[in-house]
């Protein structure tokens, strides 16, 4: 099912469809998910169990982010590590920034809601995302993996993205403008 968020200030919108983990097609995201699974051992893995070289070997390192979701306010969720190959950053390093500080209204709300969902569900989430932001259009698949210090409470989310050419169909545009 598609979820839509809109902001009329600069005609921003974000739609996403939650997908089944089995639908991951990008081999780098598949590798990252398999790595995460291999570290589970019956509980949610700890960030410290991830070897940076193992993540590099998945082929997705430059498209990974690590977000601290420990603060009680989602607006204060902070990017601890930012993959510099992502397209929406326009070359800016977002490491150390709170989501509410770098993302505008619609996209900030969207990110906060999705990271909160991973935190509360304590499970991976895979999505196909389309976004029209003031800064441009995006289309990507996002794999969000929960991490924990104690194997139960989620304190970090590891995100692996796979960007694709933006092809927003007229049907999707019509749906967004009429709903």
Folded structure, characterized:
The chain has 179 residues and is an alpha+beta fold. The chain has 5 helices and 7 strands. Strands 1-2-5-6-7-3-4 form a 7-stranded antiparallel sheet, sandwiched between helices. A hairpin with a 5-residue loop joins strand 6 and strand 7. The longest helix is centred in the middle third of the chain and has 17 residues, at 105-121. Residues 1-10 and 168-179 have low confidence and may be disordered.
Question: Total number of helical segments?
Answer: 5
Major sheet: arrangement of strands? 1-2-5-6-7-3-4
Largest sheet report: 7 strands, antiparallel
The percentage helix is 25-40%
- Tell me the number of strands: 7
Radius of gyration: 16 Å
The N- to C-terminal Cα distance equals 14 Å
Structural class: alpha+beta
Q: Which term fits the overall shape?
A: globular
Mean pLDDT: 79
Detail the poorly predicted runs. 1-10, 168-179
Strand content: 25-35%
Order of helices and strands: EEHHEEHHEEEH
